[in-house]
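Reminder to self: tokens first, then the designed residues, so the page reads top to bottom the way the pipeline ran.
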């Protein structure tokens, strides 16, 4: 038996191969026990807590931590053997690359989960989660770049030269793509400052529509007539934006003009009539009614009220109902609406002629 165990193949005895195999099998057995006993209990415990952070940690251990530990056990078992210099170098490089890969995946997944958890706690969180795509692309580029530098450093490459080259290249790219980087920066401004969000109805200058997509470079709106409007993020953050989605109520101001021939008693009744008409509308709140000015061809009344809804259709329905009721009552009371007109008074002049 001792003679069999002492036999050597590829610079290692059978006994050394068995020891390496035993290390691997024992390590795998421990991991299996850990997964069945401890990790399962951790899952059950995390499900009972109010915070989501522990759920992310446990899921991260299961998805990425376990494969890393598997490869580490394999590495420990194999390196217990006597390996050639090249074989050991390649094995070290392969295991390092695999471990860094899973660490990067774990970091990226954890960052996404934390961002989603942060955004979901905000108002209309589910809608905002859709905006995370651009941020995650940039964040993944950063994470993978750092991971690649760590890998090259572990493989023996001089990363300072790579970093210096990236720095010079980054300056050149920044100078050549100032507009793109400006839109990218303003994307972060829109995401964190939140002047508008997906499904908000906004007006920018003479353009208006519902926000459909917020991208790294452009934001897209669907206009009322159906076509898509595309704005650069820089244009949006540099413009005055009217966000009607966040309006709680609409302030409505309109005027009525009646003819100058209207009697004083009827003029006094008009504010009472208008007040009653608006008060009869359940979704309208009167602010004021005043006989305000003498116009060129009419006596002008100014009416201001609020519609207790941000919906444009609701405002249009209320205003239509008010207009129809005012028209009806004015007809019944013989109150005449004014319209552009001109009255010419002719004075008869008598001339006497002496003969």
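Designed residues (355 positions):
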């Amino acid at each position: 038996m001792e003679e069999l165990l002492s036999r050597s193949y590829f610079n290692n005895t059978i006994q050394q191969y068995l020891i390496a195999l035993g290390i691997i099998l024992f390590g795998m057995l421990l991991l299996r026990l850990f997964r069945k006993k401890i990790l399962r209990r951790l899952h059950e415990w995390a499900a009972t807590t109010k915070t989501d952070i522990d759920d992310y940690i446990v899921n991260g251990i299961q998805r990425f931590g376990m494969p890393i530990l598997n490869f580490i056990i394999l590495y420990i078992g194999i390196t217990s053997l006597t390996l050639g210099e090249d074989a050991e170098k390649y094995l070290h490089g392969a295991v390092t690359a695999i471990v860094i890969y899973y660490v990067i995946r774990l970091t990226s997944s954890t960052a996404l989960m934390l961002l989603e958890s942060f955004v979901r706690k905000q108002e209309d969180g589910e809608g905002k989660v859709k905006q995370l795509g651009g941020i995650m692309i940039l964040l993944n580029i950063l994470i993978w770049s750092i991971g690649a530098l760590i890998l090259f450093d572990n493989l023996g490459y001089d990363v300072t030269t790579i970093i210096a080259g990236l720095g010079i290249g980054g300056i050149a790219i920044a100078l050549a793509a100032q507009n793109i980087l400006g839109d990218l920066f303003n994307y972060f401004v829109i995401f964190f400052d939140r002047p508008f969000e997906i499904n908000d109805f906004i007006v920018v200058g003479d353009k208006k529509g519902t926000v459909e997509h917020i991208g790294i470079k452009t934001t897209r709106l669907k206009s009322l007539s159906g076509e898509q409007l595309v704005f650069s993020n820089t244009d949006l953050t540099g413009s005055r934006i009217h966000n009607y989605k966040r309006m709680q109520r609409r302030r409505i101001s309109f005027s009525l003009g009646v003819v100058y021939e209207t009697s004083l008693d009827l003029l006094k009744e008009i504010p009472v009539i208008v007040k009653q008409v608006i008060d009869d509308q359940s979704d309208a709140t009167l602010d004021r009614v005043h006989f305000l000015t003498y116009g060129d061809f009419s006596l002008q009344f100014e009416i201001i009220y609020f519609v207790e809804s941000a919906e444009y259709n609701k405002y249009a329905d209320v205003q239509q109902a008010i207009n129809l009721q005012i028209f009806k009552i004015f007809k019944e009371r013989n109150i005449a609406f004014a319209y552009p007109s001109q009255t010419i008074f002719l004075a008869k002049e008598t001339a006497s002629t002496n003969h």
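The chain has three domains: 2-175, 196-246, 250-332.
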